[in-house]
Design brief:
Number of helices: 1
Number of strands: 4
Strand order of the largest sheet: 1-2-3-4
Radius of gyration: 13 Å
Distance between the termini: 36 Å
Shape: elongated
Strand content: 35-45%
């Protein structure tokens, strides 16, 4: 299965938006993709990670979504 970018996920009943894109201008250290996490309750970025290739970006996106969901599940009574 091929996954194409950009990716977007809404996690924890929509509290967080996870967005992964290809950067228009790669960074000097070769990072060409970025995942950002936004907390919609405060309209602010809470995390970001960068990757050198699309496979890392897709995997990183899925990992962040899973991390947030695990934390939210642990905090829910």
């Amino acid at each position: 299965m091929t996954t194409t970018l950009p990716l977007r996920a809404h996690v924890a009943d929509g509290r967080y938006t996870v967005s992964t894109i290809e950067l228009i201008d790669p960074t000097p250290d070769g990072m060409t993709f970025e995942t950002m996490v936004f907390d919609t309750t405060v309209d602010d970025e809470v995390d970001s990670r960068r990757y050198t290739n699309s496979a890392e970006a897709v995997s990183g996106h899925a990992a962040i979504v899973q991390e947030i969901q695990l934390i939210e599940d642990a905090l829910t009574p």
